[in-house]
Design goal:
- With 308 residues, this protein is mainly alpha-helical.
- It has a domain at 96-268: MetI-like fold.
- Helices cover 79% and strands 0% of the residues.
- The chain is built from 15 helices and no strands.
- The radius of gyration is 24 Å and the shape is elongated.
- The termini are close together.
Length: 308
């Protein structure tokens, strides 16, 4: 099990390396000039060159990228070109909000999806099943950002139950978390239903029925326990998607999270902040997937043994 865990954790390194290389290449060879943002459009050639040398922007691609990787290895994400603050400090201030939205949305996803998926499975081909599947398909068709705008319009602008923009209180987190939770609950509920139907047709379930076990015991002690094992992997994928998907909602709800920081930095061509944000966000997504794989191996030890 230890070998399996180490293998998964080491797999994070090449993912982060490839991601950083792609993003760094886009900013290095792409349009835009961060120096003009600092000194203005009428900067003299001498001042322009001094700024380029100060931030190492005059160096070749490989040297700049190599310096960046060495700094990351040492735990240094650089200094913001525009704000003159350590990038890691700026990310730490914003990441907490993004994490809160993601985790609340993640909890909403599974509090809704598991009961609906189980109910649809045990009521197969009934009006309950058809209604559940209709709701699931409708939920999967809704873009998260569109649902966020609708929630903002009705519950913030029309009803004024929640603030229209971020005010630093818990009420700010409710609507974006609900938007993330509902859109992800649809796909997860469909997976739960599919797994439950497969498990309910297994021989051991028929044996339990033959022994006179109650339906409640069969469903919750035998069927649901085994049906949720594959869902563990989906949980990791969903958590990673939720953390990344909250970026658009932070813009819509004017929440000062990591996504908002990254978008503002992209528009301002603030290289260090964009690179640092991408590293942290990618690392969080990959780590969530790795944790789900490890939990899957814990629940089903055959997974860990099969990799030896």
């Amino acid at each position: 099990m230890l070998k399996y865990t180490l293998k998964k954790l080491l797999g994070i390194i090449p993912v982060l390396f490839v991601t950083s290389l792609i993003v760094f290449s886009i900013f290095y060879f792409g349009p835009g000039d961060p120096v003009s943002r600092i000194a203005g459009p009428n900067v003299t050639t001498e001042v322009y060159q001094n700024i380029m040398e100060t931030y190492g922007l005059d160096q070749p691609f490989l040297i700049q990228y190599g310096n960046f990787i060495m700094s990351v290895i040492q735990g240094d994400l650089g200094v913001s070109i525009l704000q003159q603050r350590p990038v890691i400090e700026m990310i730490a201030e914003r990441a907490a909000v993004t994490l809160q939205i993601g985790l609340i949305g993640f909890a909403i996803t599974f509090l809704i999806s598991i009961p609906i998926g189980v109910l649809a499975a045990i009521k197969k081909n009934t009006i309950v099943d058809y209604a559940s599947m209709t709701g699931i398909l409708f939920g999967q068709a809704l873009p998260t950002f569109w649902l966020g705008m609708m929630l903002l319009y009705f519950f913030a602008y029309r009803l004024r139950w929640f603030p229209i923009s971020g005010d630093g209180t818990w009420r700010t987190l409710v609507l974006p978390s609900v938007a993330i939770g509902l859109t992800n609950a649809a796909a997860t509920a469909r997976m739960v239903r599919s797994n439950m139907l497969e498990v309910l047709n297994q021989d051991y379930i028929r044996t339990a029925k033959g022994k006179g076990r109650s339906e409640r015991v069969i469903i919750y002690r035998h069927a649901l326990k085994n049906a949720l094992i594959p869902i563990i992997t989906i949980m990791g994928l969903r958590l990673g998607w939720i953390l990344g998907g909250s970026v658009a909602l932070e813009i819509i709800f004017s929440i000062p999270g990591l996504g908002r920081l990254m978008v503002d930095s992209i528009l301002a061509r603030d290289f260090p902040v964009v690179m640092g944000s991408m590293i942290v966000l990618t690392g969080a997504i990959v780590l969530a997937n790795v944790v789900s794989d490890i939990l899957y191996a814990v629940v089903d030890p055959r997974i860990g043994r099969s990799t030896k």
